[in-house]
Amino acid sequence: MQIVIILLIFTILISFIVFSIRLKWWLKDISYEYPRVLMYHMVSKHLPKNKSKFNRLRVEPKEFEKQIKWLSKNGFKSYFVREISDDLPPKSVIITFDDGYKDNLTNALPILQKYGFKATIFIVCNRFDKNWATDKDLKKSSDELNNEEMLSDEDVKKLLESGLIEIGSHTLNHANLPSLSYKDKQNEILNSKLEIEKKFGITCESFAYPFGFYDKESMRLAKESGYKFSVTTNNDVLKNRYSNYEIPRIMISGRGNILHFILKIKKGRSR
User: Fold this and answer.
1) What does the alpha-carbon distance between residue 78 and residue 238 come to, in Å, rounded to a whole number?
2) Other CB atoms closer than 10 Å to residue 80's CB: what's the count?
């Protein structure tokens, strides 16, 4: 019996240590005067664990609603990426989605509409190409992501018509920008903007670096192409020291629950 009790205590202790390391709950809260830019991908149900490497990119609809409801209840106001400025009030949140998945329309938008929250969606222009998604770890095409249903051009128009969605660019081909030549890099950054503007009759002012990979040349080309802001995957709140072309974001993982989300918002960290 004593051995069982010892093992139970040991298990609880290890679980607490893992929880603490992962969430860093003891860290001081970061002031809400600094905007939180949140990074999502999909709002959809998880696939079976043995069939998915990317459930971390899938926030289930019920969890997404809990998150938006918590933000609304606690006095947060949402903005588009293009609305970022030094004058944003405390408790400002900028919700972003990468790639352009169909569920951004079918699952995320109704929840955003319910609570009156805005979001910016960064679309890959050639997202209909079944080889658009590359697994950055394996450095090869990702069948799991390539098989996801993507937003059609008509879907994008519906999103824009809602008044709650800004459309930004995520390049033509979800390209690893630092690995490209200057000419190819310029093509991905500039021509994706021009294509979005021509198709949807809007001004595309916001850009997201695929995989979060970028270099000084990518930043310069984003600015020269006419974008006002570029977002990264750097893990932080939006402080004055950040360039408009190096905006940090907090990744919201599909593996977390509402407690994880609240701690990320309060601590201003993904991990």
Assistant:
1) 14
2) 20
Domain boundaries, the chain: 30-267
**58-59 vs 42-43, strand pairing mode:** parallel
Other C-beta atoms within 10 Å of 136: how many? 14
Digit-coded pLDDT (tens) for 52-99: 888 999 999 999 999 999 999 999 999 999 999 999 999 999 999 999
Residue 251 vs residues 3, 73, 233: alpha-carbon distances, Å: 41, 21, 7
DSSP 48: P
Q: Angle 58-197-102 (CA atoms, 0-180°, nearest 5)? A: 20
3-class DSSP state of 55: helix
User: Taking phi first (over 0 means left), then psi (-120 to 50 degrees means alpha), and beta for anything else, what does residue 201 get?
Assistant: left
CA distance 251 to 96: 10
Both tokens of residue 106?
């079918």
Third-level CATH fold of 30-267: TIM Barrel (3.20.20)
Burial (CB count within 10 angstroms: exposed 0-12, middle 13-18, buried 19+), residue 89: exposed
Q: Provide the whole-model pTM.
A: 0.89
Distance, in Å, from the CA atom of 188 to the CA atom of 209, rounded to the nearest integer, reads 10
* Cα distance between residue 102 and residue 104, in whole Å: 5
- How far are the Cα atoms of 27, 139, 151 from residue 129, in angstroms, in the given order? 43, 17, 12
Please, which residues have CB within 8 angstroms of residue 181's CB and are 6 or more apart in sequence?
A: none
Q: Confirm if 231 and 37 have CB atoms less than 8 A apart.
A: yes
Length of the chain: 271
**Per-residue pLDDT tens over the stretch 162-180:** 999 999 999 999 999 999 9
